[in-house]
Design brief:
It is a single chain. 0% of the residues are buried. The chain has a domain of 39 residues. Helices cover 38% and strands 0% of the residues. By secondary structure, it is an all-alpha fold.
Length: 56
């Protein structure tokens, strides 16, 4: 029967990719939603599409 070791001696490698894809999302939401909210308050709002990202 398999028993779990007390310590992990090696870790699996990770493929993280471009970190700007994660930290840049706040900038995108601020850009898209911030302007949209400003235009909404001033009664000039138009529909915009937010680009979705998929995990690699």
């Amino acid at each position: 029967m398999f028993t779990m070791p007390e310590t992990i001696t090696c870790a699996l490698p990770e493929q993280i990719g471009n970190t700007a894809l994660f930290v840049g999302r706040k900038k995108e939401f601020d850009y898209f939603l911030g302007d949209w909210y400003y235009y909404l308050q001033n009664n000039m709002a138009q529909s915009q599409a937010i680009v979705a990202r998929r995990k690699k």
